[in-house]
Automatic annotation (TrEMBL):
<dbReference type="GO" id="GO:0016787">
    <property type="term" value="F:hydrolase activity"/>
</dbReference>
<dbReference type="Pfam" id="PF01557">
    <property type="entry name" value="FAA_hydrolase"/>
</dbReference>
<protein>
    <submittedName>
        <fullName>Fumarylacetoacetate hydrolase family protein</fullName>
    </submittedName>
</protein>
<dbReference type="InterPro" id="IPR011234">
    <property type="entry name" value="Fumarylacetoacetase-like_C"/>
</dbReference>
<keyword id="KW-0479">Metal-binding</keyword>
<keyword id="KW-0378">Hydrolase</keyword>
<feature type="domain" description="Fumarylacetoacetase-like C-terminal">
    <location>
        <begin position="80"/>
        <end position="286"/>
    </location>
</feature>
<dbReference type="InterPro" id="IPR036663">
    <property type="entry name" value="Fumarylacetoacetase_C_sf"/>
</dbReference>
<comment type="similarity">
    <text>Belongs to the FAH family.</text>
</comment>
<dbReference type="InterPro" id="IPR051121">
    <property type="entry name" value="FAH"/>
</dbReference>
Length: 297
């Protein structure tokens, strides 16, 4: 099931993507369903089964063409966005790092995150904005100290993430916070694919990035150093994970800064992240002066 937030003529809603159409949850027959994706997540398998059952009875007139809506970031208010760095060996090596035996971690601020299709912003103070294709995990239930053998039970689903990184700021300190949290650099979406639709841990899926149609990264999630289950086990040793939290699982080799000459995102570019069976996430790139502070939806 593909669950998404969308805006239809100025009205935000949630729904289910079916091919190139959307069924708003508010249009499904029967008792009212949760009015937020977080509510759906917290409802767990019972709510998903209820939605799936009701979808069979929805009339064609209740469906909206995907082209008539604007998709929104699936979870507008994640409590935590935990990101892994150097989680693919070839990416670690291309950046001059040793292959880690424990994951590098950093946090993303919500002001750095943007809707699918919204412009990624090259900041005024730097020209070194880089792309990073990533699989994002959406946590489905509260957990702490979860063993690796049970960790996938905590996954609600998966979405896409472009971990746009301002490389010169990333390297100004030993910590990566500055380079990873510029406003307008982290598109998320366009929907959440529930875990039951994918292989366990989203393993064995092709992951790519493209800039202006040219393939820049092309790898497979089965080459992650710390797979989804191991990542959740490690992160939950440190902090309580809650429904709606998100974990970005790192990027493979082929990023712009490691190329000769480097490839930086420029205003006018189009950058796409793809993960097999999850979907694609495409955003234009603009200069800071062109960007407006988005209104909350």
């Amino acid at each position: 099931m593909r669950i998404l937030r969308f805006d239809h003529h100025g009205t935000p809603d949630i729904g289910i993507a079916l091919g190139d159409e959307i069924v708003p949850l508010s249009s499904l027959p029967g008792d009212p369903l949760p009015v937020s994706i977080r509510g759906v997540i917290e409802g767990g398998p019972a709510v998903l089964a209820d939605i799936a059952h009701r979808l069979m009875a929805v009339p064609a007139s209740a469906r909206l063409p995907m082209t008539d809506v604007r998709t929104l970031m699936p979870i507008p208010d994640p409590g935590k966005v935990v990101c892994l760095g150097l989680n693919y060996a070839k990416h670690a090596k291309e950046g001059g790092h040793e292959v880690p035996d424990y994951p590098s971690m950093f946090l993303r601020c919500t002001t750095s995150l943007i809707d699918p299709g919204a412009p990624m912003v090259v900041p005024r103070c730097s020209e070194r904005l880089d792309y990073e294709a990533e699989l994002m995990v959406v946590i489905g239930k509260r957990c702490r100290y979860v063993p690796e053998s049970e960790a996938l039970d905590a996954v609600f689903g998966y979405t896409l993430f472009n971990d746009g990184s301002v490389r010169d700021y990333q390297r100004r300190t030993a910590q990566w916070t500055a380079g990873k949290n510029f406003d307008g650099t982290g598109p998320v979406g366009p929907w959440i694919v529930t875990a039951d639709e994918l292989p366990p841990g989203a393993d064995g899926l092709r992951i790519r990035s493209l800039v202006n149609g040219q393939v820049m990264q092309d790898a497979n999630t089965n080459t992650m150093l710390f797979n989804v289950a191991r990542t959740i086990a490690i992160v939950s040793e440190i902090m309580t994970l809650e429904p709606g939290d998100m974990i970005a699982t790192g990027t493979p080799e082929g990023v712009g800064h490691a190329r000769n000459p480097p490839v930086w995102l420029r205003p006018g570019d189009m950058v796409t992240v793809e993960v097999e069976r999850v979907g694609s996430l495409t955003c234009p790139v603009v200069a800071d002066v062109e960007a407006a502070v988005p209104e909350a939806v």
